[in-house]
Write a structure and sequence with these properties.
Length: 548
């Protein structure tokens, strides 16, 4: 009798589930469900109350509703008996954090807090905590905190402590009333198992936790705000659990909700980018995997801990056991492609896809033909500048500039940003030997992937699953079940059987590479001029906008 595992990938706008045959890796059924409230970034949920700039919130009920929907759908489509599902794993965008009471119920569910934005989930791309991230960075620098170097010299406004500090400073009533601040991944695991856990991946990459040193000291947190001294003991008081272990088992309540069998094994939570490595079967030093969606994460395996400026972090066993996992990324990729299509591609008639339409027109252009270059900072810069206050830029526009030329320049800009990341690792003695890609763009968009291959001048191999993060989560679910229940005892064992890699390989076009080398040199000049404090016009404009 075959046994199966379910993986659920919680993205920025939707959740996606996948059910996999553990013995063969065959994908049996998939399902997706959009979040009812999507991203809450303009007005509050239950009123027309406007949100401040750079807020990006979500409603936790959307996660539970989507989880119920997608799990039931894959069970219904596959006709598999719940008793044959031996494990479940989930992954999430990160850092995506919410305040909860000691029983796990979110503060935003409370009538008295439902109009307070700080009671809701702060999504990964909530950038309103930038000044608190800046304070953390400046204070850590002054105090000589050694952990700061492991994060490239700067932590991001997207991370845990910047967001919690914002709550303390701007909504102390929420901070005081919350018993815990918890990653959404860990919160959903809590709802499934009745047990609170904190996964080592988000703790390591987003909360400055170290396998041997733990979190930063009380003295450091006190220097940020005296009331922040005991934030770890008071608000994060839960053991950090290693990846590849079992968080617990599905409770009767969760089993009834999802249609699964009570006591099914549940894996410790994970991050959507990091969980994808075993889904692609990667396990070599120098392997880089780009997860390309609304934003991009660039994950890299190394055997030693090195300091790389502007990286998001290096965490021992943070991706796979036995490796130092390096993370970098770009805050805006698919997001700004969608922004352009929504705002600059006019009516092309019904039954036509605007993205495919503009991509096809752009693909007919030669590199450099438009005379345009762009900076890919429409949602700030994650790596290597780690500055969320940077904004987008076009240069080279004329009265003859066409939408397809602008669109191509945006795609090229994200490829240049990826090359900047790759070259920064190489310049700091971390070699990138092989490049892989996963996610919606990698799977569906050959136009973009060919540009990336030409710009970074490397072959790019593509994940075999259209739902690679969900497949990775299913692999971890199979490991949580263990061999005695029909699963696996290690991530490597499960990955060897269940992983999937496409036959598609994008290889560089030598003629395009020559032109893109010249264009990248220009991009690098603009990158440093606007991004390294030579000209802070972007920040001054944002300040004027905020004041107005």
């Amino acid at each position: 009798m075959s046994k199966y595992s379910i993986g659920v990938d919680f993205g920025t706008l939707s959740a996606r589930a996948l059910i996999v045959d553990i013995a063969t890796g065959k994908e049996i059924a998939t399902a997706a469900n959009n979040y009812k409230h999507a991203v809450i970034d303009e007005t509050m949920v239950y009123s027309s109350k406007k949100l401040p700039p750079d807020f990006a919130l979500q409603h936790p009920q959307d996660y539970i509703d989507s989880l119920e929907s997608v799990v039931k759908k894959v069970l219904d489509e596959s006709k598999i008996e719940p008793s044959d599902i031996i494990g479940l794993g989930i992954d999430f965008t990160a850092c995506t954090v919410l305040p909860v009471y000691k029983d796990g119920s979110p503060l935003c569910f409370s009538e008295k807090h439902k109009e307070n934005p700080h009671a809701y989930i702060k999504l990964w791309k909530h950038h309103a905590a930038q000044k608190y991230a800046t304070l953390i960075n400046e204070t850590a620098e002054k105090m000589g905190e050694t952990w700061l170097k492991r994060y490239g010299g700067k932590i991001s406004s997207e991370w845990l402590f910047a967001k919690i500090l914002q709550v303390l400073e701007e909504a102390p009533e929420i901070y005081n009333e919350a018993d815990y601040f918890i990653e959404a991944a860990d919160w959903v695991i809590w709802q499934l198992t009745g047990v609170q856990t904190r996964n080592s991946c988000t703790a390591g990459y987003k909360a400055m936790w170290h396998k041997r040193d733990g979190y930063p000291t009380k003295e450091f947190f006190k220097s940020l705000n005296p009331k922040f001294e005991n934030v770890v003991e008071d608000k994060l008081n839960c053991p950090v659990i290693s990846l590849g272990t079992k968080a617990g088992e599905i409770t009767k309540k969760a089993a009834d909700l999802l249609g699964l069998k009570e006591k099914t094994a549940v894996a410790v939570g994970n991050v959507d980018a990091h969980v994808t490595f075993p889904a692609v079967g990667l396990s070599q030093e120098g392997d880089m995997l780009a997860i390309m969606g609304t934003s991009s994460c660039h994950m890299l395996l190394g055997k030693t801990e090195m300091i790389v400026p502007g990286m998001c972090g290096v965490v021992e066993d943070g991706i796979l056991p036995g490796f130092f996992g390096y993370e970098a990324g770009q805050s805006c990729v698919g997001d700004h492609f969608a922004w352009f299509v929504d705002n600059f591609v006019g009516d092309i008639g019904e039954n036509k896809n605007k993205f495919e339409y503009i991509a096809e027109k752009s693909s007919k252009l030669k590199p450099g033909e438009s005379g345009l270059i762009a900076l890919d900072w429409w949602n700030g810069n994650r790596s290597v500048l780690v500055d969320i206050d940077l904004t987008g830029l076009f240069i080279g526009m004329t009265l003859l500039t066409k939408p397809e030329e602008m669109f191509r320049a945006l795609v090229e800009a994200t490829a240049y940003g990826t090359r900047m990341i790759v070259e920064t690792f190489k310049e700091n003695n971390i070699d990138v030997k092989r490049f892989f890609a996963a996610g919606g763009i990698a799977e569906k968009d050959p136009f973009t992937m060919q540009i990336y291959s030409d710009v970074i001048n490397m072959p790019i191999k593509i994940a075999g699953s259209a739902q690679a993060p969900a497949l990775g989560s299913a692999i971890f679910g199979a490991v949580a079940a263990g061999s005695k229940n029909g699963g696996y005892d290690t991530i490597d064992e499960a990955s060897q059987v269940m992983s999937s890699l496409s036959d598609r390989i994008y290889t560089p076009n030598p003629e395009n590479v020559k032109i893109y080398d010249k264009l990248y040199a220009e991009y690098k000049i603009l990158h440093d001029y606007f991004g390294r404090a030579c000209n802070d016009v972007m920040k001054r404009l944002k300040e004027i906008k905020a004041n107005v």
